[in-house]
Amino acid sequence: MSRLHAENHLVSRIGWLRAAVLGANDGIVSTASLIIGVAAASATTTSVLVAGVAGLVAGAMSMAAGEYVSVSSQADTEKADLAREREELATQPEFERQELAQIYIDRGVERRLALQVADQLMAKDALSAHARDELGISETTAARPMLAALASAAAFSIGAIMPLAMVLISPPSRLVAVVSVASLLFLAVLGAIGARAGGANVLKATARVTFWGALAMALTAGIGAMFGTSG
């Protein structure tokens, strides 16, 4: 009898992939837009660099805090649901057995077999069985606030460093053009990597992140130029 091969499903990457791609994308777009806006206002290279570094630090902290609060709320909800489920299992075991079996029946399992499956799963770990099949909570999708916060901050910082590096190597007269083109290339690569890792359409994802990044940079460049001219 041949051994079944292990399958590596892409859904297991959803948590960290979302945080990493979102963080890096925001890092590139917000920092590049800030740099371009300040540079378009005829600021010195030093001023542009200081603004970019400040944007990196502020953005990374904001991403970490926002992600932590958001995922913590999800974790609190999961804990409350699990506590309620634990109490119901202790006080209404038969009702919970029937409820779990009904879930399998609704999926197409014959009633007698569904009850047998429910009995076996509840005998091994009743709370885990109900958490997974009734509440939709599993090890893969469980909320991890600190991990999400650190991943977002790190990804944002990595993304922000890319346009900042362009400031250091660009001649002042071409700073806006170099940062813009390089940042769009970074976004395109990021979109392709994210799509590839998540099994999505590469061309579609790349076009999406590049378009919105270009729009953001164009708007901030226009605002910077307007204030720089009027000043």
Automatic annotation (TrEMBL):
<keyword id="KW-1133">Transmembrane helix</keyword>
<protein>
    <submittedName>
        <fullName>VIT family protein</fullName>
    </submittedName>
</protein>
<feature type="transmembrane region" description="Helical">
    <location>
        <begin position="147"/>
        <end position="169"/>
    </location>
</feature>
<feature type="transmembrane region" description="Helical">
    <location>
        <begin position="175"/>
        <end position="197"/>
    </location>
</feature>
<dbReference type="Pfam" id="PF01988">
    <property type="entry name" value="VIT1"/>
</dbReference>
<feature type="transmembrane region" description="Helical">
    <location>
        <begin position="48"/>
        <end position="69"/>
    </location>
</feature>
<feature type="transmembrane region" description="Helical">
    <location>
        <begin position="209"/>
        <end position="228"/>
    </location>
</feature>
<dbReference type="InterPro" id="IPR008217">
    <property type="entry name" value="Ccc1_fam"/>
</dbReference>
<keyword id="KW-0472">Membrane</keyword>
<keyword id="KW-0812">Transmembrane</keyword>
<feature type="transmembrane region" description="Helical">
    <location>
        <begin position="21"/>
        <end position="42"/>
    </location>
</feature>
